[in-house]
Design brief:
By secondary structure, the chain is α+β, with helices and mostly antiparallel strands. It has 6 helices and 16 strands. The longest helix is centred in the C-terminal third of the chain and has 12 residues. The chain starts with a strand and ends in a 10-residue tail after the last helix.
Length: 285
C-alpha cells in the first residue's frame, strides 16, 4: 500500500513502500489514526501543557490577562495548513470567532522534532531549529539535524502519556520548549536530510518488521522564498552549480520556492539571487 498524501514532486523519496497505508499529510493521519485524533486539538494541547488558553468567546481578561498583552489566536483544529489563520493580537481585541481559541504568546526558540515511536516510546529523534527571521511568523529557514537534547525529556513524557501503543512517526513543534502543534506524520520537507536508513526503518516500524532506529540525521538547511522569486533557467542553473536544490512551491500561500542545501552560505547566496532580498544567518531563534 502507498504512503498517503505525498506531493508528486516528492514521491521519489518514499521508497520502500509499506504494506499498509501510512499518512504523510495531516488529513490522512487523522483518518488513519482514529485512536489518536485528539492530538490535533490545539486547545487541548495548550491546556495540557499548563498554558493560559481558552476558546474565543472566553475573554483573556477573564483569565487574568491584561488587555494590552499579546496572545495568539488560531483554529482549534486545522488539517489544511496547520498555521493558517494564526495571528498575534492584543488580548483586548480577541474576537468571538467560532472554532478558534486564544493562547498566551510563547517566546524563544522555535523547534520541530520528528520522532519514530514504537509502542508509545520514542526510539529516534530528528530535531530541527528555526531561524529567528520570520515571514508572518513562518521561519525563513530551518536547520535540520540540530543538537537539542534538552527537549527530549519533555517529548518522551508527552508521547508516553498521549501516544500509548502508537507505532509510527510523529512531529512535535515547540516554542521555548512549550508545545504549539503535534502531527501524526513527519516533516516530509526535511526527509532529504535524514539519511538513507530513515525510510526503511520507518517502513519496518509501521509494518511490524524487525526495527532498528536509523542513524542520526545527516543535517542540512531548508530555506523558504516567500513572496516572488526569479525561477528563470539561469537562476536555477546557478543554484544547481552551488549545490542548492530549488523546488517551486505552488501549494503554500505566499511561498514561491523551497531551497535545500547542506551549506547555509551557498543557500543564502541562492536565496538572495532568487528573492532579491538578504537572508539573515543566525543559527537559530
Amino acid at each position: 500500500m502507498p504512503f498517503v498524501g505525498v506531493l508528486p514532486e516528492r514521491r521519489y523519496l518514499f521508497q520502500p513502500e509499506p504494506r499498509r497505508e501510512v499518512a504523510v499529510s495531516d488529513a490522512a493521519a487523522w483518518r488513519l489514526n482514529p485512536r489518536y485524533r485528539d492530538v490535533y486539538d490545539k486547545l487541548r494541547l495548550a491546556l495540557d501543557a499548563g498554558l493560559s488558553a481558552a476558546p474565543c468567546g472566553v475573554t483573556p481578561m477573564d483569565l487574568g490577562i491584561a488587555p494590552g498583552d499579546e496572545v495568539f489566536v488560531k483554529p482549534i483544529t486545522n488539517l489544511s495548513g496547520m498555521g493558517l489563520d494564526a495571528r498575534a493580537m492584543r488580548a483586548g481585541d480577541v474576537p468571538a470567532e467560532p472554532g478558534s481559541f486564544w493562547c498566551e504568546r510563547l517566546t524563544g526558540l522555535h523547534t520541530s522534532t520528528d520522532c519514530l515511536v514504537q509502542e508509545g516510546v520514542v526510539r529516534w529523534f530528528a530535531h530541527t531549529r528555526a531561524s529567528a527571521e520570520k515571514d508572518a511568523a513562518r521561519p525563513i529557514y530551518w536547520e535540520i539535524g540540530a543538537s537539542l537534547p534538552e527537549l527530549e525529556p519533555w517529548i518522551h513524557d508527552w508521547v508516553g502519556r498521549h501516544l500509548s501503543g502508537y507505532n509510527g512517526l510523529c512531529n512535535i513543534e515547540l516554542i521555548g520548549g512549550r508545545p504549539i502543534e503535534v502531527h501524526l506524520r513527519g516533516s516530509n520537507g526535511f526527509f532529504d536530510f535524514y539519511g538513507p536508513d530513515f525510510l526503511p526503518a520507518w517502513v519496518a516500524l509501521v509494518d511490524g518488521a524487525p526495527f532498528t532506529p536509523p542513524s542520526a540525521p545527516e543535517g542540512g538547511f531548508v530555506i523558504s522564498v516567500f513572496g516572488s522569486a526569479d525561477l528563470s533557467k539561469g537562476s536555477l542553473k546557478a543554484a544547481d552549480a552551488a549545490g542548492v536544490r530549488v523546488q517551486p512551491d505552488n501549494a503554500t500561500p505566499g511561498r514561491a520556492a523551497i531551497l535545500r542545501c547542506h551549506d547555509l552560505e551557498a543557500g543564502a547566496q541562492v536565496y538572495e539571487r532568487l528573492s532579491g532580498g538578504t537572508l539573515e544567518r543566525d543559527g537559530g531563534g
